[in-house]
Amino acid sequence: MSNEVILLSDIPNQSQETYAGRYMGPYVLKSQLIDKGHNTIVLDWFRFIQDNEKFFEYFENFVDENTKIVGISNTFLYPPREVNKKQNDSTGLSAFAAENYDTKGEEINEDSVAAYSLYLWDDNNATLTDWFKRMRAVLDKYNPDAKIVLGGARSTRFIQMASFAPEDYCVKLYVDYIIVGMADFAIQKLIDKIDNKEKVTDIWEHHGLKFILCDKEPWVTPTYYVPKSNYTKADCFESSHWAGMEVGRGCAFNCKYCYYEKRFQEKRPMDEMKEELKRNYYELGIKGYNITADCFNDNRRFVGDWAEMVGSLDFKIEWASYVRVDPFHKWPEMIDEMVSSGYRAGWYGIETLSHKAGKLAGKGLNPERVKELLALIKSKGENWITAYFILGLPGETKESMQETLDWFHTQRIIDEIQPSILDVGPFIEELSGIIDFSDHSKNPEKYGFTKLEYSPEFYWEHETLNLKDCVVIHEQWKKELENHPYTRFGGSAHGEYVRIRDTGLSHKEAVVYMKTKFRGGKNLVNIDNAKKKKFKQYVQNLSTQNIQRYYDRFLEVNRVRHA
User: Which of 232, 234, 276, 372 has the highest CB neighbour number within 10 Å of its CB?
Assistant: First the structure.
């Protein structure tokens, strides 16, 4: 069957050791497009193909003369890893100048570090130029009118990059449109215009790039809309696989550093989600979920209704999601409700243990109470806790960051720590009114941020910290926590649990494996080195087998048969 739309979904895993839990967004778009009569396919595991030759050999299996759009999640656009070449990471650092940052025995040079987590390929332009050129060649072979469209959570970065280095930005040579924001309705409108051979208007052109802004008419996604997913046998799920499920959009809180969509505060109807869970289980065997929500537990009634609904099923599910600590202070009983409904892992935005910094950031909960609540959550079972921290918040100091590090050394609660340097900026006047950035970015002077005169657009400092301080602190944390017996220092910690579960391990096996892999099993996993090595090999072999089986099934079910 021809694929009118091909969606390339990101997989955050950088190795072949496990294959990742699937991102929800592309499947949401696929479901909606199929409902509108457009044959659509999601290719979501290509990061296990380590070189361009294999990728394009794989990609061409799904393209023909009827292909209209290739949509690419922009977090995907890391080129294949090159030997001895430093790549971008997800720590919040980006080497924008001629030299990459490297703190191993060397002083950090302020002129070589920018404090904006671009999640892009700023030092790999040549590699990506070749990648896009080859994709364009594949599409031209079958349908020269097919469009390349970028989207995803980091689309605003393209605007910043185009502003900063328009003369050598390869994307403008090959990409037709970039969708910024919730693409649910925008991509359908774009396809309709392409089908009707209409000129695509109401877009924003910037340094040779064409942006579709989903907070502007006619591309806006309604605030009441929370999409369903509609997985099919063509997606080749197995009973061990974890699926994404979107339960709500928006967040009831207003953290000053956050730039997530603020218009949405909707949760899906329980009856609708119950039917989706039942269909996924009885037709596809799915019983594990990466629950997508900006904040799962920001609504007391929703959590209670969810627990009751899941409890009424005649099968069990397990799930993980983004969670906030604050609501448990007021409603501690929600922890039991979540655990009883299958909660196994949570990703918590702690951000700071400084009371002053927390208040300035819009998170005013007492740090000691945060610690108590984390301990309470942990006491309810072997629930995996990933904690996010932000380095550089106003009011934070070197001393308060050291106190946080000291606490890390004494606690046995947090399993993974994901620190990021605060995004401040972009301080680009031409973007004013175009994109809704964080309050820190829109009103930097209110929080004491200063753009350094000698620097590019993204440098900053405030009265207690600057970029260099945060880089040093980040490297200190990394050095001291990488081998900590109770806490893992994560590069992309939020997805690790889901990725491990998607190999087919049980929750207990996944916890054992993660402790074994990331912490050497110190004081936690009572097995000798030979058994640890054997267990790690078992997981790797299991994953390899699953990848190959999935690869074979997916090609068999979905590939286009070229004449």
Answer: 276
d(CA 93, CA 103): 12
3-class SS shares of the chain: helix, strand, coil, % to 5: 40, 15, 45
Residue 250 belongs to some domain of the structure: yes
1 neighbors 205 (Cβ within 8 angstroms): no
| Cut 0.70: pTM above it | yes
Maximum Cα–Cα distance across the chain: 68
Same domain as 291, residue 216: no
pLDDT of residue 364: 76
CB 115 within 8 A of CB 458: yes
pLDDT in tens, 489-521: 875 545 678 878 887 888 888 887 777 766 554
Residue 4 pLDDT > 70: yes
**Residues 266 and 222: beta-carbon distance below 8 Å:** no
Query: Distance between CA 65 and CA 266 in Å, rounded?
Result: 39
Beta-sheet strands, E only, within 81-169: 147-151
Confidence of residue 171 (pLDDT cuts 50, 70, 90): confident
Residue among 439, 410, 422 at smallest CA distance from 254: 439
What pLDDT shows up at residue 519?
Answer: 58
Q: What is the DSSP letter of 282?
A: I
Residue partners of 430: CB distance under 8 A and separation at least 6: 163
Spatial distance between the Cα atoms of 545 and 257, rounded to a whole number of angstroms: 42
- The answer on 253 and 355 residing in a single domain is yes
User: Can you name the residues that pair with 323 across neighbouring β-strands?
Assistant: 348
**Confidence at residue 296, expressed as pLDDT on a 0 to 100 scale:** 94
How deeply is 516 buried, as exposed, middle or buried, from its count of CB atoms within 10 A (0-12, 13-18, 19+)? buried
The whole-number average pLDDT for the span 427-438 is 65
CB 493 within 8 A of CB 386: yes
Contact 235, 282 (CB under 8 A): no
Residues 203, 330 share a domain: no
Domain total of the chain: 2
Question: Exposed, middle or buried: residue 105 (CB in 10 Å: 0-12, 13-18, 19+)?
Answer: exposed
**Which string of DSSP letters, residue by residue, matches 231-243?**
--GGG---TT-EE
List the domain range (segments joined by +) for residue 169.
Answer: 5-85+124-220+547-558
Please list the residues that pair with 391 across neighbouring strands.
421
**214 and 265 together in one domain:** no
Give the pLDDT mean for 106-130: 46
CA distance 325 to 453: 39
Q: For residue 85, give the amino acid letter.
A: K
Q: What's the per-residue H, E or C state across 437-490?
A: CCHHHHCHHHHCCECCCCCCCCCCECCCCEHHHHHHHHHHHHHHHCCCCCCEEC
385-418 per-position pLDDT tens digit: 999 999 999 999 999 999 999 999 999 899 889 8
